[in-house]
Amino acid sequence: MFGFSLLIFFCYILFDFPSATTSSISIPTSQTQSQLQSHPRSDPDPFRHLLAAFRKWDSQVGCSSFKQKHADFVKKRSNSSSLQVGAGREHQCGELKMNHVGVLIKGWTWIPDNLDNLYSCRCGLSCFWTKSSVLLDKPDALFFETTTPPSRRRSGDPLRVYMDLEAGRKDPVLKIFSSVIMPKMMSSQLMLVASFITTDTLVYWSSSRCLPQRNQLAKSILSLLPHHSFGKCLNNVGGLDMALSLFPECVKDPNSSPQWWDHLHCAMSHYKFVLAIENTYTESYVTEKLFYALDSGAVPIYFGAPNVMDFVPPHSIIDGTKYKSMRELAEYVKALANDPIAYAEYHAWRRCGVLGNYGYTRAASLDTLPCRLCEFISRRGGRDATAF
């Protein structure tokens, strides 16, 4: 007997996130109504060393003050769930119909190969996640991203799971899945963080998909700030692989051709700020563009999801849409770059252990995808699931 419905793995089944709406990214104007952050106040000090900035912040501000200032976020951390339990969606072990689930990845996906493994999940469930049809010859589910799943399923066939990472391309709920899966997308790549920061060039930006609207926005802010633009769009460094020439310590393998991801974290970490602009201005659509910057140790200047603070730690990013104009934003960035104490406060969340909403984001990252999906498949019954 055939089932005509395609099993689509909706993230909202496991996690509660805000509804999604899509629009184009807007450039701030002087008429934008927003509450501006206070400008840093101290004698200008174009510092070069992060550790020295941290020591100044520790002596003049400190974690106790930061935690008190963000007490609501500290409370959220204590109430957040473990990595394998969705916020507000704790499923009972009795709902599971299988104690072992196998998921076979079909075709090319953005999910890194190093996710392949056998996982020990909650409730005694084991989960085998692999791209090998030899190691997993009888999968309980087939996972598709860039290839189209079969439209029909016979009784006893594996369930079909489809993931869409682009907002607005299919059902609007799917864009939420992108926002929570991207933070660990490059977990298999080189992770080097520099303690030394250039002083004359403040902002890093890299893009090779030159969307007109994103280019216009990037140009409007970068024209006001010292910056290096890598990639094909607005390149001002003399070539696509110049990051590896500027920062040879970022070369992953000197015996192989450079790849675009070789400089993502390492080169970013040499700058005080990283410009991160989403392809689409959509609620809850927060992608790797922001999390690469956050993980590198730079301070992201972000344009994208209007509810981005639902996904990041407190006082960790600069939301460019909250300023009345690009000039006002640029003035704030310049002032921040000359104030080691104010700049160090953007790193206080990780040094003081204040996750806030970021705890929920981490709980829905690639780290936990295999177990979350296997639990969902187990509740369905895998191959024994009724056709739907």
Automatic annotation (TrEMBL):
Subcellular location: Golgi apparatus, Golgi stack membrane
Membrane topology category: Single-pass type II membrane protein
Keywords for this protein: Glycosyltransferase, Golgi apparatus, Membrane, Signal, Transferase, Transmembrane
Enzyme class, broadest EC rank: transferase
Pathway(s) this gene product operates in, as recorded in its UniProt entry: Protein modification; protein glycosylation
GO-annotated cellular components: Golgi cisterna membrane
One matching Pfam family: Glyco_transf_10
EC number: 2.4.1.-
Location of the Fucosyltransferase C-terminal domain: 201-380
Signal peptide (residue range): 1-22
GO molecular function, one term: alpha-(1->3)-fucosyltransferase activity
Family of the protein in this entry: Belongs to the glycosyltransferase 10 family.
Protein name per the record: Fucosyltransferase
Species of provenance: Mikania micrantha (bitter vine)
